[in-house]
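yo, UTP--glucose-1-phosphate uridylyltransferase is done. seq:
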Amino acid sequence: MTSRPRSSAPRINKAVIPAAGLGTRFLPATKATPKEMLPVVDKPAIQYVVEEATSAGLTDVLMITGRNKRPLEDHFDRNYELEEALQRKGDAERLAAVQESSALAAIHYVRQGDPKGLGHAVLCAAPHVGGEAFAVLLGDDLIDPRDPLLTTMARIREEHGGSVVALLEVDPSQIHLYGSAAVQTTGEKDVVRVTGLVEKPAPADAPSNYAVIGRYLLDPAVFDVLRQTPPGRGGEIQLTDALQTLAADPAIGGPVHGVVFRGRRYDTGDRGDYLRAIVKLACERSDLGPDFRDWLVKYVNGEMQEIG
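structure:
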């Protein structure tokens, strides 16, 4: 085992959450409601993401929004009328739940304007982030709080500097849905050096079955790279292409490492995955799980008997 160089990389406290997408896969539900506000059990998906960020010590959150995203701001703001009504009723439990979202972090907002891709959305954060390293969390991936991915990624960045991405081993037939990373092993289990990245390659062209999922810790050098990155796949500015540049030349902004995630992840990216995420999370809840699991078993068994 080779010893890893120690880095003086400072801790990160700023998180960027891109939330400007149109949510077309969930129409008509998202015609007037942002996809990020669709409930996952009894909280909007975006709240899980903010909670994950704050649990990892990221207390400054910037959301990259677009048109019709005002409900995001309302959700993380105080609602004095509702709070007063709950207080008059003596409903302390629901009052605490309502107040929780507005006390999570210092949350800021900037509009992306033109939908030019994830790389462009991240670039919109440059004036707020400045010269600091920062995290990017995508809302389609919900990470179980029992598996603190961001904390592990932060440790790797403190040791090595540069940028860190989250990776997931997927079936090779599914790699075309993700960015794919070329990697080299390190002396640490589930930590790799990323040497290249390709956005949504055909399975035959993929450098590996390590897929990039929606968690990044980025060196601020990525902003200059993004400014010079031409539109790529889909005519959009791809964050993957900028990370490829950083990985190919560590002199620009340090190396790129990957943390291979083997914990619990809930994908809310399409309707089927969204429904499965709700079922999984509901089954895990101590207040809902026992009754819900009993009902689910009976329901599935009843459906199987009907089909048979």
